[in-house]
Specification:
single chain; 725 residues; alpha+beta; Methylamine Dehydrogenase, Chain H; 3 domains; 5-stranded antiparallel sheet; 39 strands; 31% strand; globular
């Protein structure tokens, strides 16, 4: 391979596309036997007869070899390289358009950008970016915003010589003298814990490996951190470590494979909390942050189906609990004895309002509630027994908490955005009720929000349920005009699909593409019940909801099936694979990111990351009834001899959440069985990269430009290679 690399280094990029697959075949002739490829012919994967032991029946899996020895198998790597080379060859005519799109998207970004500072302890913290640098620079100013800048962590320096860099946790000790941070340089979401002396600038390397969460105790020297299992990646052990001691004390091991651990600290900085959580149940232990050597106390023992989460203010814990309904209520309990018999209700459970989160401050607390699919913020003044709701001007938007680290503050920071309004930072004065816009994401190049329109539609499912669709277009959208349209959805784990602003997306909108977001069941868009209606033995509701939304958009004349592109990632990639099998005639193009498509084989393997804990989301295929249901929709196992839409599938070799072999096998079987001549492209990052794609901001733009160019081609919009006026 050294010789081949030398040859490739001497030829032009265009020639590399043409000769790389052939050189790969020459390098591994025996392993690549049965894989043929020319300049414009896709690589055909070899078939090795095999059956996977998948429950009551064994399914043929001739492509199981993609997982053999995983990333070290030369035959696997050769085939994946051939897939990349084929995708590059097919899309070579789009090179100029990709460059146009990249420059266009880059031109909307303010490359030298400084975020709004937030107060923690005695300093103000913020991050900023610099032109031509991939990653943020983390800074602070002591005492006042007029103080000199102190750079305490530069991700660009940490990433030097690395193909991938991702910062995990970033935690400063309460006295501001130490920084704990975790980082991953592979994309496998396996983070190493470091501590940095902010006075000397010296970093203590590799305090611990596989760290998933970390907090400081109030003594500024003690760290609590959670580590994950090296095979299953389940966060399962809590350790205590005092800097310089060389001792790491194991405090707790979560033995139930359905549960994972996380360590946090209350905003008051008074307590350190250890949460043990499954998909349906939680349990909390706690200690005083200034007594790190004491034992953690259990608040309420776990009970299947009961979730509760705590925060602290004054002499009480505030506890968000679903003990009286799926939508949660808020109770208060004395610190001396917070057991459930001492709970006093503050906010009752309301079936139509999901209490998603509670933030406590010294003189007030804040509730984030979801009603009719939209988040709302309510400020509660317990001493006055009053509450103020923050209202928002647009019919479709999203909102989230900001960096509110100061417990004593009377200002609540939140982030607001919509399809049309860029991400905006607001400070809300809880005394006066006034809000102040501190910063709005800059969109260069003359962006005008008035040129775009968003609205919400509803499609009616077969059971009568109304499924929301958020719609975005340039100019007024008139039914009957049958626009090219991109429809996206996720629909899993109770995670809401909130609307977000994207300056990149403008490159599609300005060329006439309409964007739609389907809020299908399985997500948390309309609360916990919305999730429950699209999981386990009701999972196929997610797929039928999406098809219903697509059909509604066609029936209303917003688009046609030959102008309809769809996209989703991870569990949303499962959705893409399922609807491709169910209604391949309904879509023109599918763009699928790190898709979870090999449901049976993955969920049968308890050694894979995430598997056991996700039995509560998908089912346990070791049980015959669950196996039969999952088998009925698993995309890989239901590919038929059909004409399929054009497809672009993306993956990463080091993805820990969806193994690269899932989309690789899926594409191989599609190539074997599909009867059409539509393009099927598989792009896989063979360098360090993660579930979310490239880590650098410029690298991500390059990937987006590739995807958009292919999409515009398949939607017949190459004539609009430049934005319309």
């Amino acid at each position: 391979m050294i010789a081949i690399a030398s040859v490739l280094g001497k030829v032009s990029p265009a020639m590399k596309v043409r000769i790389a697959p052939a050189l790969a075949i020459l390098a591994f002739p025996a392993l690549f036997l049965g894989c043929r490829m020319t300049d414009q012919s896709p690589p055909i994967a070899k078939k090795i007869p095999a059956k996977a032991p998948t429950g009551p029946h064994s399914l043929p899996d001739e492509y199981a070899w993609f997982r053999d020895d995983q990333r070290s198998d030369p035959g696997v790597l050769s085939h994946l390289k051939a897939e990349n080379a084929y995708a590059d060859a097919v899309t070579k005519p789009l090179t100029e358009l990709r460059e146009t799109l990249y420059k266009e998207m880059l031109g909307r970004i303010k490359e030298d950008e400084t975020q709004v500072p937030y107060k923690f302890g005695a300093a103000f913290y913020y991050s900023r970016t610099e032109k031509d640098k991939q990653y943020p620079i983390h800074c602070r100013k002591q005492g006042t915003l007029d103080a000199p800048e102190e750079v305490f962590l530069d991700e660009n320096k940490l990433s030097e010589g690395k193909d991938f860099f991702e910062l995990g946790d970033l935690a400063t000790s309460l006295d501001g003298l130490w920084l704990a941070y975790t980082s991953d340089t592979l994309g496998y979401r396996q983070y190493t814990l470091h501590a940095k002396d902010l006075k000397t600038g010296k970093t203590l390397e590799n305090i611990a490996e596989r760290v998933t969460s970390v907090v400081w105790a109030a003594d500024h020297q003690t760290l609590f951190y959670v580590t994950e299992d090296p095979v299953t990646k389940r966060a399962s052990q809590l350790f205590r470590h005092q800097l310089g001691s060389g001792t790491h004390t194991l405090l707790f091991t979560e033995s139930d494979e359905l549960y994972s651990l996380g360590v946090t600290r209350t905003r008051s900085n008074a307590f350190v909390c250890l949460e043990s959580q499954s998909k349906t149940t939680s349990e909390v232990r706690y200690i005083a942050a200034d007594k790190p050597l004491e034992d953690f106390k259990l608040m309420v023992p776990r009970k299947e189906g009961h979730e509760y989460y705590l925060d602290h203010r004054g002499d009480a814990f505030l506890i968000r609990t679903n003990d009286q309904g799926k939508s949660f209520r808020l109770v208060q309990a004395p610190i001396q004895d917070p057991s459930s018999q001492n709970w006093r209700e503050i906010i009752p459970c309301r079936p139509t309002v999901m209490l998603e989160d509670v933030d406590c401050f010294a003189s007030y607390f804040v509730c984030l509630e979801r009603e009719n699919g939209l988040l709302q913020i309510t400020i509660h003044h317990p001493e006055e027994n009053t509450a103020d709701k923050i209202t928002f001007p647009e019919p479709v938007y999203s909102v989230r908490q900001g960096q509110n680290h100061d417990f004593e503050t009377t200002t609540f920071r939140f982030f607001y955005q919509s399809f049309i309004t860029p991400d905006s930072v607001y400070d809300y004065d809880v005394g006066t009720g006034k809000r102040e816009l501190k910063k709005q994401q800059a969109v260069l190049g003359g962006y005008s929000p008035d040129a775009y329109q968003s609205e919400r539609l509803y499609a009616t499912a077969s059971d009568g349920t109304r499924i929301p669709i958020s719609l975005l277009s340039k100019g007024k959208l008139e039914p009957g005009h049958k626009h090219p349209l991109l429809l996206e959805a996720y629909g899993a784990y109770g995670i809401p699909s909130d609307v977000e602003f994207s300056s990149d997306r403008l490159s599609l909108l300005d060329r006439g593409v309409v964007y739609a977001l389907a809020h299908v069941r399985g997500g948390g868009d309309l609360g916990k019940e919305w999730h429950d209606q699209g999981k386990l033995f009701r999972k196929k509701t997610t797929f039928s909801d999406f098809i219903t939304c697509a059909e509604h958009l066609v029936e209303q004349g917003f688009t046609t099936s030959d102008k309809l592109a769809i996209t989703g990632g991870s569990a949303g990639g499962l959705l893409m694979g399922a609807v491709a099998n169910m209604r391949p005639d309904l879509f023109k193009l599918i763009v699928s990111y790190v898709p979870f498509v090999d449901v049976i084989n993955t969920m049968m393997d308890e050694t894979l990351p995430l598997t056991v804990g996700e039995y509560l989301e998908w089912g346990n295929p070791h049980e015959p009834e669950a196996y039969a249901y999952m088998r009925s929709y698993s995309p890989y196992d239901n590919i038929g001899r059909n004409a399929y839409p054009s497809m672009l599938v993306r993956s990463a070799l080091y993805d820990s959440q969806v193994g690269y072999w899932e989309p690789a096998k899926y594409v191989a079987r599609l190539r074997e069985l599909k009867t059409d001549k539509n393009p099927l492209l598989f792009k896989i990052s063979l360098e360090p990269s993660g579930h979310g794609g490239a880590s650098g901001r410029y690298d991500r733009l390059r990937d987006t430009a590739f995807d958009y160019a292919f999409m515009l081609k398949e939607l017949g919009l190459l004539k609009h290679d430049k934005p319309r006026g």
